[in-house]
Amino acid sequence: MPHPASRYLAEGPRVGIRHFTYQDAAEFTARARDSKALHHPWLFPPDSAAAYSAYAGRLIEDPTKAGFLVCEKDDGGDIAGFININNIVEGAFQSGALGYGAFAHAAGRGLMREGLDLVIGHAFGPLRLHRLEINVQPANTASIALARACGFRLEGFSPSMLFIDGAWRDHERWAITAEMRTSG
């Protein structure tokens, strides 16, 4: 799918990260539909234009959220996945909660690892956050492996934390701080 020339907020060897735009709806929703089997039962990204518009709007307009698309640099900027920082709190907390997902065509290729590293750097740099947390269902081994590979540490367990796919689901809490990033 064609992409307008865009500037990445940060770049690695294979991917760049940029903010969501409303113009990404067609590609994002097509990739979400193609990735349903990969995502179920963990997450449910928007797969229609209306759902995408509402989702992207929250990420674009709400100052307590920051949404990033992980884009392949060698493939015309194709969207490989997405990483969102939600519940951004400033002041003494300087923290946010991460959510992410790879699209099926990019899964298992290390693109999300590179993208998450870039988002962490952006969060601890320009966004001036101190701590990022990821909440993951214990059986979601791919998501846990990504968190671990990027330097997150397991901090705890939250029973019945989030209502996902019709039920309250347990989650593990993984976190990283700016100090862990610089000492690691």
Write the layout of secondary structure elements.
Blueprint: E1 10-11, E2 15-19, H1 25-34, H2 36-39, H3 49-61, E3 66-72, E4 79-89, E5 95-102, H4 111-124, E6 131-136, H5 141-149, E7 153-164, E8 167-177, H6 178-183
Parallel strand pairs: 5-6
Antiparallel strand pairs: 1-2, 2-3, 3-4, 4-5, 6-8, 7-8
Describe this structure in words.
By secondary structure, this protein is an alpha+beta fold. It is built from 6 helices and 8 strands. The protein has helices at residues 25-34, 36-39, 49-61, 111-124, 141-149, 178-183; strands at 10-11, 15-19, 66-72, 79-89, 95-102, 131-136, 153-164, 167-177. It has an 8-stranded mixed sheet with strand order 1-2-3-4-5-6-8-7, sandwiched between helices. It is globular. The N and C termini lie far apart (38 Å).
Can I get a quick summary?
By secondary structure, the protein is of the alpha+beta class. It is 30% helix and 34% strand.
